[in-house]
UniProtKB/TrEMBL annotation:
Any GO CC annotation of this UniProt entry: plasma membrane
Keyword Secreted: no
Name of protein: Leucine-rich repeat-containing N-terminal plant-type domain-containing protein
Lipid bilayer topology: Single-pass type I membrane protein
Pfam families: LRR_1 (PF00560), LRR_8 (PF13855), LRRNT_2 (PF08263)
Amino acid sequence: MESWCFVKHKASLLIFMMLLIFILGWAQGIYIEDERKALLEIKASLLEVSNFLNVENLLPTWVDHGKYCDWERIKCNMTSGFVTDLYLGNMFSKEKDMDDFYAFHRSHELIWPLNASLFLNFKELRRLDLSWNYIGNAFVSSGLERLSELKKLENLNLGYNFIETNIFPSLSELTSLKILNLTHVNINVYEMNSPPHDISEFQIPENLEVLDLAGNCYYGTLQMQGNSSQETYKLSRLMSLNLADNYFNESLITALATFTSLKTLNLQDNSLSRSFPSQEISELTNLEMLDLSSNSLNATPNIQDCKSLIRLERLESVSLRNNNFNKSIISCLSFLPSLNILDLSDSYNLGKVPNLPYLEVLILRHNNLNGTLPMEALAYFHHLKLLDLSFNNFVGSIPSTMKSLSSLQVVSFSHNALNGSLCNDGFCDLKNLQELDLSDNMFDGNLPKCFSGLLSLKFFDISSNQFTGIVPPSLIVNLTSLEYVDFSYNKFEGSFLFSLFSNHTKLQYFLFESGSEKIEVETEEPIGWIPMFQLKFLVLSNCIKKRPKGSVVPSFLLHQHKLRVLDLSCNSLEGQFPNWLLKNNKNLEILKLKDNFFRGVIHMRYKSNMKYLDMSGNHITGAIPENLQSFIPDIEHLNFSSNELNGVIPTSMLDLTELLTLDLSNNKLSGEVPKGLFTNLTSAIIIKLSNNTLYGNVLSGNLSLGRLETLQLDNNCFTGNISENHFMGPSILDISENHFTGTIPSWMSSTCDMWSSPLTYCELVARNNRLDGPFPCGTSFDFLDISQNSFSGPIPTFINMTNTKHLHLGSNRFTGLVPDAFQNLTSVLTLDISQNYLSGRIPEFLGELSSLRILLLGKNNFIGSIPEKLCQLNNVSLIDLSSNFLTGLIPRCLNNITGPKQLAFTQKFVFGYGVDSLWDDHISQYHIHETSFVDSMESDQFETRDEIQFTTKNNPLTYKGNILDYMWGLDLSSNKLTGEIPEELGMLTHILALNLSHNKLSGPIPVSFSNLSQIESLDLSSNSLSGKVPSELIQLTKLAVFDVSYNNLSGRLPERKAQFGTFSKESYEGNPLLCGAPLENNCMTTPQVSESSTKKDTEKWYDIDKASFYGSSCSTWFVFMLGFVVILYINPYWRRRWLEFVEECMYTCYYFLYDFVSSHCPTSPQHQGVQHFLPYNISYGGIPILE
């Protein structure tokens, strides 16, 4: 009976178990089906965005059949089959560059409409990654707080999205979270489109171990609910906290005292100030890494507070870069018992290298450290592995004691002023060296052959030095660990065989931009060599000189398939556009082939991921292809300038929606600009169409310029009035050398005020158009050129002129005085108000503009003397005061103008294109080398070069750009200046052009002018100068134009030697008393004197030809008398006045004689008779006078 009951009970139990298994299986099937449906709905939500981005077939493996655990981006539990991990980050495969990511979102306002409630179906979900997508506020409002139902969710990543709403209340419910990443969760916050949020609203989940809130502009403190014991319990598990790039202040530090489990704390780039928080930090006894960089900490606590740091026994890494500490911070940090990584970069008051010999990593970049390298102090750093002293002011050579730092693995001395040879520097003994950066110094001599023994070397950068000789072949062959090599801008000689790298399997980056004509890179020897490396980054610019006939690009590139950056500029390469490069390298992003000899039309065959294409400076002909968008849809920077392209700009150019910069200048393009070019290219910030023959009313009508920051339309045939529409114009606008008419609209004169950033460079160039009327007052420009128009009225004044650097108002119709507001031009380099109708005196305050380089006031109506305050312009290089009504003497103090000490008109415009860090696995975990491709273009690429007119060599010449740094001239011609030429002008030893012509100057030509060793043009004509032409002027070997015509000079001309042998008689005409070649007047000589030098030495300035003197005097007298007689004959009025004057003189003489005789002789009959004989009255001037 019992047996039967047991069997019956067992059967029931078995049935129950089978039923339970069935129910569980059925439930699991339901859950699995729910997960499948949720995954397919997530894919469906991507459809709208993928269509907009033209991204085909996102998540192709996510189909409604098969096991979804095999789908991409999914990880399942091997037992239950449920989803545990969803990796949905960067769904649209956009490059992880925040600036580009944000720019695309801003231009397209793109948002992924993802519903948060879809994830509730994944009951076992542990990790959810949604970073680098276009997720917005709708994701939060669709039930983000309900994710708290996912009790196993531990890792949530929402970083790099566009969630503007306050996300903290929803996240506070997710109590199971251990890792929360909200880095840049609201990228819009940098545009100030949404207010930052108070972090005090965030209830931190009690299990949280890692919290990343970087880059959100949060503020406040971490306020916890409950008593202090509960707070400590809640925060006891938090080990990593990243609050970088926010608005937290020092009050946060106090709140962090309860975070006792913290191991890493990152507070860089916040608003911390005052003293280093040693006491507060000392409470975090488990801390291993501390980053307080880029704050405003500026004081060191007292020694007692510093001693509290002894408690931080685990703290190994401290970064305090970019603060305001002085050397006393070193004493405080010395109490850290385990410190081995220290970054004090950008601490300009540090003064010297810290005495912390137990360090392994020491980074002191940008500290203004000077003197020689402190090797004596560093000799005690026996454990040092990484030493970075770059971007300082160290001088001298590298001492041989460098070899004592035998543990060094990374060394960077770049961007200093170190010099000398490397032969005895001790580097060769550093066998553990993996990175060596000596770039941007002044090292010279040959590269040491012993460098070939540095077998661990991966990174080798010696660019921008003065190394000479050949690159030792053994150095290249032996260093097979090399990954990054840069030999650019040295003085190497001979031939460098690129095939020396043929056995290097790790080489990824090679740069060789040659600045020398003595070095050439041989890429084709031996013929047919095949490399074992796969390059990512190759720059061979201006160095490939010998190539087999018919070769277009180096043949070894046929074997490269991973190139991302290729620069073969300035190599005289020929042939058609190399399409095969795009076919072989699907990841090629940057291609520079500028300044070669590529010919033919642009014909692309393969679709590419290209972002940067530069074909400028070639001989490309034909029209711009209509189908560019099909082959380079992601292009961001396109440069076809300086070719021979013709035809119209195709409307298909509007389909390049990613385009940031477009340069089609210096071609033969014609026709009208396609409508929408400035608005449809919504990402474009720079468009340059200069120097073509484009026409039409491009700026008229209902105008909008989109997001453009730079627009250059100069040197075309554009016409019409400029639109009066009010909108945000580009900060750089060049419409010069066209046919625009009408007035300047108010938006154009106030464009700088529309740009929110005070650092924005503002420029307006409207030179040589047909614009008229008054120029509207507005915000000041950095560069303003409205010259050669018909603007009238008083000179305009602007708000905040302190930033103006170039002001060109010349060749207009401005009237009145120079405005007092010009004294605010404290940064001005160029001031041109010439060729107007300005009057009054030259203002004294112009002499207080200490930055001024070029002052052009010529061709106006200025009066008075030259202000002596102009002598205070020590940096000025060009002064033009010509063609005014200036009087008085030339100031002697002009010799105080010593000229500029540094360049002001030579500038670089820099684009940077980031490439992944080469050293992600760096032994120190400090990435001191972030490789990037930097394209440095001369200022005429996208920034207007300054341009002025100045008369030299008797011609009004135009000087533009870099040459202005080397021009030096003074023009005081065509005024009414008097007196002698000051001897002090001979101290202007760097002057190139001096013009004092057409004045009333007198006296001799100063002998001190022989000191003007650089002068090329000297014009003293049309004055009243006397004396000889100084023979010492023969020393002026660069003098090309010399003019002393129409003066009163005399004597023998200097010998026809050097430059004086090139001057014609026109240089001396109008001086009849000058003699000697090239004039026809021969100087009188005495043949009996055998030594001609004796006669020359005894000549006096007053020795003249008497025959010539008397002859010229008589001729002058005869001409004068003849003219006088003719006037009396012709004019009866003057003839009558002359006769009356003669009559008056006769009677005056008579009475004078009569009175004289009467007073000296006695009265006699004879005398009486004479008196009786006189008439009773006489007529004086027709009026009777009684006697």
